[in-house]
Design a protein that fits this description.
Blueprint: H1 11-15, E1 20-21, H2 32-44, H3 55-75, E2 83-86, H4 89-100, E3 109-113, H5 122-131, E4 134-138, H6 148-154, E5 159-165, H7 177-187, E6 192-196, H8 208-211, E7 215-219, E8 230-234, H9 236-240, E9 252-255, E10 260-262, H10 276-292, H11 295-312, E11 318-320, E12 329-334, H12 339-348, E13 351-352, E14 354-356, H13 361-366, E15 372-376, H14 383-394, H15 396-399
Parallel strand pairs: 1-13, 3-4, 3-5, 5-6, 6-7
Antiparallel strand pairs: 2-8, 7-8, 9-10, 11-12, 12-15, 14-15
Helix pairs in contact: 2-10, 3-10, 11-14
Bound molecules: 4'-deoxy-4'-aminopyridoxal-5'-phosphate.
GO molecular function: cysteine desulfurase activity; pyridoxal phosphate binding
Protein name: cysteine desulfurase
Catalytic activity: (sulfur carrier)-H + L-cysteine = (sulfur carrier)-SH + L-alanine
Length: 400
């Protein structure tokens, strides 16, 4: 496949030819194969899965489960039973916190970091408040990485969960999750390691066996598949120990007036009619990515981050939050400019990016900043996009 102009696989760019889209950490554009899958499902084969036995329904059920197998294979999971469909990363985090809660008792500890997205922070914080658990927060080093020495000092026999992001959304910093997991397991082998892969999924080759987390989750819209679908991977043995999250159709085995027994994995966690079209879109996206995410494309992406870091040096009074081990994003501030004003002017210049606290308020409180400007790239961005951004940043003063 010709990967020189990847924008051509994303209809959004045809409809917005003058827009420079640098807000991929918020959401990536949906790829044509995903759109086709959604269209085909609704136009040609719309029916439910795992319920009716007519031809279309059966074909859909087969396809639905094939996509699950595809995802298991793509993530190098042991089995498709380890792949749970969710609405997205936020729902996956909530599912975990809720379903695990019966395994904890007052005084147990949960560790997370100060740089987490609220989905992987507020969820655990609220669970701790409700169950009277102790929430411990890992500090960061000067380059905004998890401080592994501090982490080591936090883990005790009471530690139940370590919840960290693979790549921090506010800063783009790739965190040393493999090291963190092995430190946690060494001190307390019972620690459940939960990794939020939302900002890693479209930039890194994911191998859940190698990462060795107990749970790993992400959203489909961060990997070109559109909204409304997410994946929660869990080691089978861990998933089996969890209580169901939602109750309803298809997550049951037997139901009587007195009692209910629950379905096997993964259906135990998938009550109600799922987002079938979005699952098909995710499957089509994985096929597409398997073809285009070559080493060359990955290398181009990381070169683009280096180029962005280099070019940003031209902009006066600009300070970058973190400069090392960046994956997909760079976050910065320009002194005397409020991030919102920067965004407003750039938007008028047809450049889309995100400013603010990026759903990571504890981080910005910690580093004492009002927010930041975040430039986030993806495989379809190129040097011209960066050049346009830099020219706009150099022109900020004149624009007023
Ligand atoms: N975690 C991280 C690191 C994220 O970047 C995001 C989305 N910005 C989420 C969780 C939440 O994802 P969603 O809103 O798709 O549930």
């Amino acid at each position: 496949m010709n990967t020189a102009n990847l924008k051509s696989f994303f209809p959004f760019f045809k409809h917005n030819p003058d827009l420079t889209y640098l807000d991929n950490a918020a959401t990536t554009q949906i790829c044509q194969p995903a759109l086709t899958a959604i269209n085909e499902y609704y136009c040609r084969s719309h029916s439910n899965v795992h319920r009716s036995s007519h031809t279309t329904a059966k074909a859909n059920t087969n396809q639905f489960e094939q996509v699950r197998q595809k995802l298991a294979h793509w993530l190098n999971a042991d089995s498709s039973k380890e792949i749970i469909w969710t609405k997205g990363a936020t729902e996956a985090a909530n599912l975990l916190a809720y379903s695990l809660s019966n395994q904890f008792s007052s005084g147990d500890e949960v560790i997370t970091s100060i740089t987490e997205h609220h989905a992987n922070f507020v969820t655990w914080q609220q669970m701790c408040i409700k169950l009277n658990l102790k929430l411990k927060i890992v500090r960061l080093t000067d380059d905004l990485k998890i401080d592994l020495t501090h982490l080591e000092s936090l883990i005790t026999p009471k530690t139940k969960v370590l919840a960290l992001a693979h790549v921090a959304n506010a800063t783009g910093v790739k965190q040393p999750i493999e090291e963190a997991i092995s430190i946690a397991r060494e001190i307390n082998p019972e620690t459940l390691c939960v990794i939020d892969g939302s900002q890693a999924v479209c930039h890194l080759n994911l191998d859940v066996k190698q990462i060795d987390a107990d749970f790993y989750f992400f959203s489909g819209h961060k990997m070109f598949a559109g909204t409304g679908i997410g994946v929660l991977y869990g080691k089978q043995i861990r998933l089996e120990q969890l209580n169901p999250f939602h109750f309803g159709g298809e997550m049951v085995n037997q139901v009587s007036v007195e009692a209910t027994s629950f379905n096997q994995l993964p259906y135990k966690f998938e009550a109600g009619t799922p987002n079938i079209a979005a699952v098909f879109a995710l499957g089509a996206t994985v096929d597409f990515l398997s073809e285009i995410q070559t080493d060359t494309v990955r290398q181009r992406e990381s070169q683009l981050i280096d180029y962005l870091l280099h070019q940003l040096q031209q902009v006066p009074n600009l300070s970058i939050l973190a400069k090392h081990d960046l994956v997909g994003a760079v976050s910065f501030n320009i002194s005397n400019w409020h991030p919102s004003d920067v965004s407003e002017i750039l938007s008028q210049m047809n450049i889309a990016l995100r400013v603010g606290k990026h759903c990571a308020m504890p981080l910005f409180n910690e580093i004492n900043q009002d927010g930041s400007v975040r430039v986030s790239i993806s495989l379809y961005n190129d040097k011209q996009d960066i050049d346009k951004l830099i020219a706009a940043l150099l022109d900020l003063e004149n624009f007023l």
